[in-house]
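re the bet — no i am not wrong, look at it urself. input seq straight from the record:
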Amino acid sequence: MMKRVIMAVAMALAFSLSGCAVVDYAKDNPATAALAVKSGTLAFVEQVDPIQRRVERAKEVIVVVNFILDQMDSSTSATVSTLSSEVRSQIDWNDMDAYERLLLDSLIFSVESKLKERVGDGILGEDDKLVVRSVLEWAKEAAGMYAEGRA
């Protein structure tokens, strides 16, 4: 299950960081970008039944988001490669089918590559961290609706 949560969070990051135009759009239109991320997160949480399972999935999303935030904040010189390695280390690759491994590996690689294109040497600048943090906080806020019984 954790692999699917990481995949969903990685997809949210891939969407938000896939290019300067999207990042600029998120900066210029934060309410619209927040709505898109929150809606996507809620859709991911709501893919499971029964409803009680949604609470568990929401809590898993929050754990993954907090993990990524902790990794990003743990160093003043967080690098894209370090964050990518930390996310990869949390995945139970042996618990996946071959196509799931390929999809998730490709997704992580895509996010990592896009971030490296933006920052050049792989070091996340403060602006980049703010964008990543905003997207993750929006996902966390949406998941919190289920985790706290508000949905």
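see?? The chain has one domain: 2-147. told u. also The CA atoms of residues 56 and 147 lie 7 Å apart. so pay up
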